[in-house]
Amino acid sequence: MKSSRLLSILLLLQTRGRMTAAELAQELEVSVRTVYRDAESLAAAGVPLYGDAGHSGGYQLLAGYRTRLTGLSSGEAEALFLTGMPGPAAELGLGRALSAAQLKLRAALPPELRAQADRMRLRFHLDAPGWYAEHEETPYLAQVADAVWRGRVVEVRYRRWKEPREVDRRLAPYGLVLKAGRWYLVAGAVEGVEGAEGAKQAGAVEHSRPRTYRVDQILRVAETEEVAELPEGFDLAEHWRRAQADFHERLHPEEAVVRLSARAASLLTGPQARALAATGEPDPELEGWTRAVLPIESESQAEAQFLALAAEAEVLSPQRLRARIKATLAAMTARYG
Questions:
Q1: How far apart are the C-alpha atoms of 88 and 95, rounded to whole Å?
Q2: Which residue, of 92, 165, 182, 304, is most buried by count of CB atoms within 10 Å of its CB?
Q3: 283-308 per-position pLDDT tens digit
Q4: HSE of 306 in the Cβ direction (CA atoms, 13 Å)?
Q5: How many CB atoms lie within 10 A of CB 202?
Q6: Sign (positive/negative) of CA torsion 302, 308, 313, 314?
């Protein structure tokens, strides 16, 4: 709708400052000519909008002009309150700030939208962690978040899964991610750059590629005055997407050819369910069964998984995995026979 688009132009210029017609057109997914017409409509309505021609020109609002949030649709107002996360905000030390922001937003809404937003807040609640996930204490989350925000190198003692279990690291923090109720720090390990006389240059650091650290495994943290700049072109969301894809690829490095009953096929999840959809074909020997190539983590993990499916699944290859399951079944038959 045109009214919604005009409001979007106002809010974009209010938050980003000067923007060209081409930039506005790309953001709103309309033509440049449409942006020209919308700009004329805004100016005719009394909005202090002016444009400059030329290569460095663009549209800009008169300094100090602000628009109120009266152009929100009911769905947008509901969505804003639904995105509030009091738990994570409190963990980051922003609980009061979030409450104050929601209060100001609620006060700015017209009465009818305020009522709908209140109804959304009362009827929907976000609880991200799984049912059986225990709450992990993250005593240093606020300090880590402050270092991320200020762009400062931190010195941490970190507990990892392999020996030596506790290690000291100097990290350049790039961002925090909340995944399934658990906080992760994306950071690069830091090495100081030495000058001509062997002394470390202030603010000069070299970062390794970004890695992921669980914040609840940080045992001690001290912020330094060294600046931690983001790598050129780094995007936290894109990095996290790639890191998850790499993790799942490393988690299932092997494959097994398996025939499954309809019930066993319905129990597969994640990468195995996707592999079933991609490679599954009717089994030529058992009617109603499916034959597929499934990713597996290891032979021991696959043995436990397919034994749990009992007679609803059969491993056809690799032969080592098939022989392993056969030996386990023979031992169980002897024990229970």
A1: 8
A2: 92
A3: 999 999 999 999 998 899 999 999 99
A4: 30
A5: 11
A6: positive
Which residues lie below 8 Å from residue 225, measured CB to CB, with a gap of 6+? 152
Of 51, 112, 42, 125, give the one whose Cα is nearest residue 81. 125
Q: Which residue has the tokens 């749990």?
A: 308
Q: Compute the distance between CA of residue 205 and CA of residue 182 in angstroms, rounded to an integer.
A: 29
93: its two tokens: 């030390």
Q: How many CB atoms sit inside 10 A of residue 228's CB?
A: 23
Residue 320, amino acid? R
Cβ(276)–Cβ(290) under 8 Å?
yes
Strand partners, 188: 172
Q: Which residue in the block uniquely carries the two structure tokens 């074909």?
A: 281
Sign of the Cα torsion 310, 315, 319, 321 reads negative
Residue 162: per-residue pLDDT: 86
List the structure tokens of 71.
Answer: 């152009």
Q: How confident is the prediction for the chain on average, in pLDDT?
A: 82
Tokens of 187: 């950071």
Q: What CA–CA distance (Å, rounded) separates 81 from 98?
A: 11
Return left, alpha or beta for 232; rule: phi > 0 is left, psi -120 to 50 is alpha, else beta: beta
188 contacts 212 by C-beta, under 8 angstroms:
no
Give the pLDDT of residue 12.
Answer: 82
Neighbouring-strand partners of residue 161: none
Specify the pTM.
Answer: 0.59
Q: Which two tokens stand for residue 100?
A: 């104050």
According to the model, what pLDDT value does residue 137 have? 81
d(CA 184, CA 197): 38
Contact (CB, 8 A) for 108 and 66? no
d(CA 26, CA 241): 24
Percent of the chain with pLDDT over 70: 77
